[in-house]
Structures are given as structure tokens and as C-alpha cells.
Design a protein that fits this description.
The chain is α+β, with helices and mostly antiparallel strands. The protein folds into 2 domains: 167 residues, Immunoglobulins (Immunoglobulin-like), CATH 2.60.40; 230 residues, Leucine-rich Repeat Variant (Alpha Horseshoe). Helix content is 37%, strand content 17%. It contains 14 helices and 9 strands. The strands form 2 sheets. Strands 2, 4, 5, 6, 8 and 9 form a 6-stranded mixed sheet that branches. Helix 5 runs antiparallel to helix 6.
């Protein structure tokens, strides 16, 4: 097994980023080379591997300088320089938010003083989802595969200057039989790419920037063709939205029922990132539903639009959402009730307290979750009262909401009967009497899905 790694060396006196403060480049490269060779021997069991897999893997930039607001793509290239085909995981180049995803590329971006740039990634209120769906790409001998990763997803590139990037990837390479198209169960090798790169970001006016974005926008002008690859245009339009993208973002968020080339939620996220009044009005229209929304009338997509409205927390959205409750399906009512807890609005709070008395158990469950989102001690008595609800699911959710709000570990089993629920309620009442004067709920960090 042979590993070929490509590094970009720099003069020994340049270290503005803080990546290697104690090692000069020559010594750093030697140490990394020895570490990689040791890892190779361990993977190969201390002897030459049977499968001779040779490759070159590296990250590069397409040019040395970009404009502020321009998409900055970092290209990952892997070339099969051996005589045996191999395969590896592949997916569209959207950043995955989960931290435990070893196949994903990693980028660290710092300015000339070594300060890491702010991360613009969404911080979902439900936490980052770890699951990622991968396909596979097979690479014959002599074949080359490239992936363009939008660096703007990892760093907020908003100011002119010189920036330094550490790009890493550790990609398992599987054996591939071209006849049976079967993959080996274990990796033959691990393609390791570690590159230290730099680029300059120059100031730009809108007149200078618009021609740089135009190639991506043109892809949306003839969606009826149905053949073009829209992954990069969708990524650029939703990650770096501009006011003149509005119509295209609305089309992304309201696809026709037979359009499956992109995830309509990306359009909603792009509208939320754009953040203008017309953009939020479009999100509200999709949340309301109706025939004119096409595929956007899907309940799951409407629910996502409602979640974004709640995360935004603008009080102006409360009245439209509350007015939707009477005629909404159970699923949409649940989305609305959970979102109302983000607004901290008297009208939203009133709607949640009223739904605690609903004849529908699911409404009571979602009202409890909405009240939990308020993160205020004022909801504690109402939540304690719901611990003795006639429905076991409602009791369970009420107890869960109290535990997550207070940090107190009073358990209530899913098989608990009414007598045990009364006992748990008594313990909550006792705790509340002892802490009513001093208890302050912890406030969660701000979260949003865009």
C-alpha cells in the first residue's frame, strides 16, 4: 500500500495562523510523514498489503483571489494512480452538521493574525442531526474524481484580507469488482489529504459581484429542461442569498409536485438567510399552505416553514399562526403549538395555555412542548398539573418538560398508572414550594435552522 500526500510548504518564518507554532514546515512534514507511514503499517497488519492501491488526494483552490460575497469553492481531487479500481463514499457537497462524521471534509479558516473566522453554520434547536446518506463512486485506474466544497459554509468570509485554510479528509477506499459491482466489506486503504492553503479576499461592489454570481443564477431560468445539475446553483443561491435572488428562492421553496431535483427546505433556508421582509412573507405564505403552493403544500414542508417562523420570533407572525389553528390538521396544529413557545408573546402564551384543555391528547402534548420552549418559571404550575392528565402520553411529556426545564430528576415510567402519577405530582409540588422564590430556568443558546 502506498500513500502519496501533497503538502504546500511555506517559508519557515511564516506562521500567521497558529497551526504549527512549535514546528518549522520541514520538521512538521517529516513528523506527519512518519505518523502516516506508522498508521499505514498498522492498517496493513505490519506487512505489505495484498491490495496495491495507489492514489493522490489533495485540496486546491481554483484561483488565488476572490471577491467578498463570491462563492469560494475548495476542490477535493482524488486520482487513482494504481492498477486496481476502488470505490468511496460520495454525496452532494452540502455541509453536514454532525460532529461524528469521519468521512466528511474538515476546514479551519483563519485570518492573517491566526484568528479563526466565525462559523455561519445553522444551530438547529433540536440539535444537529448526525445522519448523512451516502452513495458510492468507483474510480478505475487512471481515473480522477473531483468534489467542489463551498468554503463559505464553514467560515463567514465577509471582510477583505488574506485567509489561511487547513483542509483535511480521511476517506476509506473500498475494493470494487467492475463485473459484479460489489464492494469490499473492509477498506483497502484510507485516502488522507491534508493541505494548508491560502487565498486573498478583495472588496467588491454589487456591480462587480453580480457577474460572478450570474452563471449560478442562469441555471434557474429554464427549470423546465429538467436535465441540468442544480446542486451547485441551489447551494450558492441558498447559502449566499442576495435580494435579487428572491424569485429564484421562492421557486426553490415552492417546487412543482413532480420536481425532485432539490430539497425544497433549502429554498426556505435561503429565504430565511436572506432575511428581508418579502423573504419572510414568502415563508409565511408557504406555512399557510394552499393549492397555489404546489409541492410546498406538503405538511412536512409547511411544518418546517412554521418552525423557521418560530425561530425568527417576530411577534408579527403570532396572529397569522394562531388564526391557522382552528382549521389546521392535527400535524400542522402540533407544528404551530410547538413554534408558539419561541415567541414569548402574551397572545402566543394564551393560545398554549388554552390548548392544555383541548379534548385532543396530541394538542395537549404539543401545548406542553410549546410552554417548555418559553423557558420561564411561570409555566411550572401548569406543567405540574399536566403530570396527572388522564392520558399516559400527556403525563410522560409533562414530566419530561419539567425535567428538562428544571434539571430535577423525578421519574415517571411509561407504564405508570394514575396512582404513581399522583405521587410524582406530589413530589413536583413539594419541589416547587421549596424553590418557587429562587428558581430561574437556564436559557438555551440561540438556535436556528438557517
Amino acid at each position: 500500500m502506498m500513500f502519496e500526500m501533497v503538502f504546500e510548504e511555506r517559508p519557515a518564518d511564516c506562521d500567521p495562523r497558529g497551526f504549527c507554532s512549535s514546528l518549522c514546515p520541514g520538521r512538521r512534514l517529516r513528523d506527519i510523514w512518519f505518523a502516516v507511514m506508522l498508521a499505514t503499517l498498522l492498517v496493513a497488519g505490519g506487512r505489505a498489503a495484498r491490495a496495491q492501491v495507489d492514489y493522490v488526494a489533495r485540496f486546491t483552490f481554483e484561483k488565488p483571489a476572490y471577491r467578498v460575497g463570491e462563492p469560494v469553492f475548495c476542490t477535493f481531487t482524488i486520482r487513482n494512480t494504481g492498477t486496481r479500481p476502488f470505490a468511496f463514499s460520495y454525496r452532494s457537497p452540502w455541509r453536514a452538521l454532525g460532529s461524528n462524521l469521519p468521512k466528511e471534509p474538515r476546514f479551519r479558516v483563519a485570518d492573517a493574525k491566526g484568528r479563526r473566522l466565525p462559523d455561519p453554520a445553522p444551530k438547529p434547536c433540536g440539535g444537529a442531526k448526525e445522519g448523512v446518506v451516502y452513495g458510492f463512486v468507483s474510480l478505475p485506474p487512471g481515473g480522477t474524481h473531483r468534489e467542489r466544497w463551498l468554503l463559505n459554509q464553514w467560515a463567514r468570509l465577509s471582510e477583505p484580507g488574506r485567509y489561511f485554510v487547513r483542509a483535511e479528509r480521511h476517506l476509506p477506499l473500498l475494493g470494487f469488482d467492475p463485473v459484479t459491482e460489489e464492494l469490499s466489506k473492509k477498506p483497502l486503504a484510507f485516502a488522507l489529504a491534508i493541505n494548508e492553503l491560502s487565498f486573498e479576499l478583495k472588496p467588491a461592489t454589487e456591480d462587480e459581484l453580480q457577474p460572478l454570481l450570474e452563471p449560478y443564477l442562469k441555471a434557474f431560468d429554464d427549470l423546465a429542461r429538467g436535465t441540468s445539475d442544480l446542486s451547485e446553483p441551489v447551494l450558492v443561491a441558498t447559502a449566499l442569498p442576495k435580494p435579487y435572488f428572491l424569485d429564484r428562492l421562492v421557486r426553490l421553496a415552492r417546487p412543482s409536485p413532480d420536481e425532485h431535483r432539490w430539497d425544497a427546505r433549502r429554498g426556505l433556508e435561503g429565504l430565511a438567510r436572506l432575511g428581508t421582509a418579502p423573504a419572510w412573507a414568502a415563508i409565511l405564505e408557504i406555512a399557510r399552505g394552499g393549492e397555489r403552493n404546489g409541492a410546498a403544500d406538503d405538511p412536512a414542508l409547511r411544518g418546517y416553514a412554521i418552525l423557521l417562523l418560530g425561530e425568527k420570533g417576530d411577534p408579527g407572525f403570532v396572529a397569522p399562526l394562531v388564526s391557522m389553528l382552528p382549521g389546521a390538521s392535527e400535524e400542522i396544529r402540533g407544528d404551530i403549538l410547538r413554534a408558539l413557545g419561541f415567541f414569548h408573546s402574551p397572545r402566543a402564551n394564551q393560545a398554549l395555555f388554552e390548548r392544555l384543555h383541548s379534548s385532543e391528547p396530541r394538542d395537549r402534548v404539543n401545548a406542553i412542548l410549546g410552554l417548555r420552549n418559553l423557558e420561564t418559571k411561570d409555566v411550572v404550575p401548569a406543567l405540574i398539573a399536566m403530570v396527572t392528565d388522564p392520558e399516559p402520553e400527556v403525563r410522560q411529556v409533562a414530566n419530561f418538560a419539567l425535567r428538562s426545564l428544571t434539571g430535577v430528576s423525578i421519574t415517571l415510567s411509561a407504564r405508570t398508572g394514575e396512582a404513581d402519577a399522583e405521587h410524582a405530582s406530589a413530589r413536583w409540588h413539594a419541589w416547587w414550594r421549596a424553590h418557587i422564590a429562587t428558581f430561574t430556568p437556564p436559557r438555551a443558546a440561540p438556535c436556528h435552522d438557517w
